[in-house]
């Protein structure tokens, strides 16, 4: 079956596009016809994603740009650079940049709590705000903002007091953004991945995985491409009547 081509002529920005889920989202969007801005703090990995896109999806113009999503000036520079390059703001925005700094509540340092909130939660706020402001200013009345929370934001996880708080915040932020932005034609939805095989999870201790695995109904970790499938649906008109929701992409984790 031919891959769908639902994103022709669309411009997308993907933070965290240099790795894991973000990279898979960039590839999926490009495969559906979008021009993709790969945005990442790690310039080298962003350029690796760009190479993949430029090799496999030549019909559109893709770029890689450096950004630290936790800094307002950096996010502002990113959105300005996109507008200078493409003469329009991106109408699809995926906030996939994220970090972990795991520790038990009783031992967590304040800096480690703050850093995770700054990147995962404030970073999502800054990018969502900058992109939606640019869309409204340009009078573009169609947009899809996709944020990346986590199943952990709903159910909690031992050793992730900062991460689970940041991801619960991302869900609340997304619902509020949906309420405020619907009048501008901008939809906002949140993806809640479960355990996805990526650089973020590759060093999870065996002890943790042996406890989690039996709780996954599908019996395995997810693939970044399986999260990207859902992002492509949310970015496309196939979801044009969907806003303010969270979608679990977790193989049935924790429902049993
Ligand atoms: P990853 O570590 O493979 O990729 C994260 C990317 O974010 C990296 O390229 C990194 O350079 C970038 N990044 C980090 N800080 C940044 C910053 N300040 N500014 C810009 N870019 C920054 O992780 P992943 O597994 O692909 O995770 C992607 C998103 O999905 C994250 O938000 C993560 O919390 C979320 N998530 C992942 C899983 C999982 O099991 N892998 C589960 C639930 C949610």
Automatic annotation (TrEMBL):
EC nos: 1.1.1.239, 1.1.1.62, 1.1.1.n12
Tell me, what's a Pfam family for it? adh_short_C2
Q: Which reaction is the catalytic activity of this chain?
A: 17beta-estradiol + NAD(+) = estrone + NADH + H(+); 17beta-hydroxy-5alpha-androstan-3-one + NAD(+) = 5alpha-androstan-3,17-dione + NADH + H(+); testosterone + NAD(+) = androst-4-ene-3,17-dione + NADH + H(+); a (3R)-3-hydroxyacyl-CoA + NAD(+) = a 3-oxoacyl-CoA + NADH + H(+)
Q: Which GO terms describe its biological process?
A: estrogen metabolic process; fatty acid biosynthetic process
Keyword NAD among record annotations: yes
Keyword Flavoprotein attached: no
According to UniProt, this protein's pathway is: Lipid metabolism; mitochondrial fatty acid beta-oxidation; Lipid metabolism; fatty acid biosynthesis; Steroid biosynthesis; estrogen biosynthesis
Q: Where in the cell is it found?
A: Mitochondrion matrix
Q: What is its main location?
A: mitochondrion
Molecular functions (GO terms) = estradiol 17-beta-dehydrogenase [NAD(P)+] activity; quinone binding; testosterone dehydrogenase (NAD+) activity
Matching entries from InterPro entries are given as:
KR_dom, NAD(P)-bd_dom_sf, Sc_DH/Rdtase_CS, SDR_fam
Q: What class of enzyme is it?
A: oxidoreductase
Q: Which residues form the Ketoreductase domain?
A: 10-199
Q: Name one GO cellular component term.
A: mitochondrial matrix
Q: Which UniProt keywords apply?
A: Fatty acid biosynthesis, Fatty acid metabolism, Lipid biosynthesis, Lipid metabolism, Mitochondrion, NAD, Oxidoreductase, Phosphoprotein
* Binding partners and assembly: Heterotetramer with CBR4; contains two molecules of HSD17B8 and CBR4.
Q: Which PANTHER family match?
A: (3R)-3-HYDROXYACYL-COA DEHYDROGENASE, SHORT-CHAIN DEHYDROGENASES/REDUCTASES FAMILY MEMBER
Q: Which family does it belong to?
A: Belongs to the short-chain dehydrogenases/reductases (SDR) family.
Q: What is this protein called?
A: (3R)-3-hydroxyacyl-CoA dehydrogenase
Protein's organism? Pygocentrus nattereri (Red-bellied piranha)
Recall the taxonomic lineage recorded for the source organism: Eukaryota, Metazoa, Chordata, Craniata, Vertebrata
